[in-house]
Each structure stands twice: as structure tokens, then as C-alpha cells.
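The authors assume throughout that readers already know how a fold can be written as C-alpha cells. What matters is that the chain and its backbone geometry are given together, residue for residue. A single example would do more here than another paragraph of explanation. For illustration, here is how one protein appears when written out as sequence plus C-alpha cells.
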Amino acid sequence: MSTAPKTPSSIAKTLQRHPRPAGGNPLRNIDKPLFSLTGQILNNQTATPGAPGAPGAEAAKQFLATKRKPSWLRAKMPGGPGYQRLRKIMAEHSLHTVCEEAGCPNMGECWARGVATIMILGDTCTRACGFCNVKTGRPPTLDLDEPRRVAESLALMGLKHVVITSVNRDELADGGAAVWAETILRSREACPGMSIEVLIPDFEGDWDALHVVIDARPEILNHNLETVRRMYPAVRPSAKFDRSLDLLRRCKDAGLVTKTGIMVGIGERDDEVLDLMDDVQARAETDILTIGQYLQPTPNHLPIDRWVTPETFDRYREQGLARGFKVVESGPMVRSSYHADEQADRLTGAARETHEGMTRLIDGAKRG
């Protein structure tokens, strides 16, 4: 249970951490500067290396390399009848998707496959993460009719697997847990053949609120670590690395299939990624890990530190599987919901029972 009281002043401090206004590219609202620092920034202007104020050749080359997307980062344009059908239903039921709010590069592919990520509890987040393009501010309302609309829209969509996520609602006493649980229960009732995956916030360490969601028994429970421990002050200023590990452990102990994800290229080192894998397995025994390339949403978000190569992502996958993760999705375009339906097929329902049965047989053979 979180011991910190939720007061207007504490919420205001959280909202003040982020310099950007709610939504869109914030640079359109920035006043004209009193003086310019342009000459101090590495750019592609021609200058003699070593001259006063000019970047060194290697530093300039490295800077320019991070500004150009590499050839392996190419997403398909959204389109097709499946995509258009889902988009129409979302609009008619006034639903939000993190696919659209966060500008996910895989939206076209996933929607065409019949997989979507619904975002509940509104479209305004009370936190100010340095990587996220979802609006920041104090949400104006709490829509208690949202669970019904979500369930009805999912019944129309005919999805095989849905991922439900939410903004953080730290101003609510339960962080929105009651709405979470009702959305899961109503969606299961409306779509009995659909598997449900949830991507939840940390509820500020309020474990009573967490168990309200756990008791609704989603097929997969995801909570993203997002980055390595050292990067938390910049990337997730309102979150705690150890608190997130504790959340994953509690969900695992409750018998749920658990999942977490990180992005790379935001300032971490490869050895820190491997250390994170060790921490997750030692403390939470999480089933699924996703790793993808960080993409800077707007100029006012954290900059890209490096482009991680496909070969490095392949090594991450190998190392993750060697450390005990049952599924590792690792690649430049991977996001939390990427191939979520296939993960559900492998680790829930009949497929999960087969996996667990084989694991018991293997363990029994080892002991024998």
C-alpha cells in the first residue's frame, strides 16, 4: 500500500515535471528565444574541425548518424479493410487506442491481424515520462460508462486477442483499478472466445488496487519496466524500478502469465540490459519480455542515443531465452503489443496447459 497521501500539491508537482503542454508538438507554443544557442549544437553545417565552436569530425559524424533512421526501420503505412473497419468502430464508440496516441509504427500490421490496444481511463496522463507522446495533465473527468462501451465495441470487432492499457490516473484513490476490473469482466462476458491482455500502471504501489485487477483474471498481465534502473530519473521520473519488479512478482505469485517490456537506444548500455534481465528473472520470474528501439516522438522528448542493430536485438533475444524467459520478442520495431496474440496462444489456454505439463515432465525427469 502506498503511504504517500494523494494531495493536490503532490499531483501538481508531478504535472510540473514535464515541460510540454498537453498533446501535440510543444514547440509551436514556445515563445521566441531571447538569444540563440544554435551555433553550440552539433549539426551538418560545414565547418573546419578544430576551429573555435566547430564540432570534431568524429563527434559530428556520430551526431548525424543518430539523426538519420537506419534502413532496417521501415513501417508499413496503415491501410486495408481490416484496419479501416477497426478505426470506424473505435471512432463510433469514442474509444482511445495507445496505437494512435503513442504513434505506434506497427498499427497497420496489428489492426489488419485483428489485434488492437485499447486505452481506457481517458487520453490524459497524470505523469510526465520523458519518452511518451500521450497527453500530460489533470484528466477532466472519469468516464464510468467506458467499460460498457469497450465491451460492446470489442464484440463488434470480433478480435481474437485484445490488449487493454491505460493512462496513469494518480489523482484517483484507487488509480482507476475499479474501472480496470469492470472493463476486463465486461469484455470477457461480451467476447468469451477472446483472450485479454492488460498493460497496467503501477498504481503508486497500492497493492490493494492491484489485486482488484488481478482478481479479474486477465489471461496476460503486462507492466513495462521501460528502461534500465539507472535511466529511471530521466525516463520514468514518477516510477520506481524496484516497485515495478515487486508488482510483477505479485502478479506472478497470483498465478497470472506475466510480461514486461523495455526500449533501447535511449541511453542504456548493453550490459545494463542484461543486468535488467537478471533482475527480472531473479525477483519476478516473468514469462514474456519485449525489447524495441526507442523513437523520439517530438523534439521535446528525450533524444535518441543510438540505433540498435538487428544483430544486437538477436543477441538480446538469445540472452533473454537463456535467462529463463519463455518468450522474447526483440527487434527494432517491437512494441509491447507486437505479436501479442501469438504470445497468448503459446502461454494461455490449452497451449499453456501443454507447456506446463511438459515442464512438469522435464522437471520430474531431472529429479529422477
Summary: The longest helix spans residues 349-367. The radius of gyration is 22 Å. Strands lie at 96-97, 115-120, 124-125, 135-136, 161-166, 195-199, 220-222, 257-264, 288-293, 327-330.
